[in-house]
Amino acid sequence: MAHLTEQFDHPAWLTAAGTLAGYGLILLFMFLLLFILPYLLFPA
Fold first, then answer.
1. In angstroms, rounded to a whole number, what is the distance separating the alpha carbons of residues 39 and 31?
2. How far apart are CA 11 and CA 35, in angstroms?
3. pLDDT tens string 8-44
4. How far apart are CA 27 and CA 16, in angstroms?
5. What span, in angstroms and rounded, lies between the C-alpha atoms of 7 and 5?
6. Which residues of 5-39 are buried (b: 16+ CB within 10 A; e: fewer)?
7. Which positions, given as ranges, span the membrane (predicted)?
8. 3-state SS record for the chain
9. In degrees to the nearest 10, what's the CA dihedral of 24, 27, 32, 38?
10. Whole-number Å distance between alpha carbons of 9 and 4
11. Rounded to whole angstroms, how far apart are CA atoms 6 and 12?
């Protein structure tokens, strides 16, 4: 198992994970802002 963690020890993997996490947070925020908030403000 130690070989597996050494394989992903390069800083590029940390950068890729941070980029994906950042995009995920932005998409979650946009989803809440564009779909959930109007649903709560204007109930059907």
1. 11
2. 36
3. 888 999 999 999 999 999 999 999 999 999 999 998 6
4. 16
5. 5
6. eeeeeeeeeeeeeeeeeeeeeeeeeeeeeeeeeee
7. 20-42
8. CHHHHHHCCCHHHHHHHHHHHHHHHHHHHHHHHHHHHHHHHCCC
9. -170
10. 9
11. 13
Query: Can you say whether residue 42 is alpha, beta or left, with left for phi > 0 and alpha for psi between -120 and 50 degrees?
Result: beta
Phi, psi of 14 (to 5 degrees): -65, -40
**How high is the pLDDT of residue 8?**
81
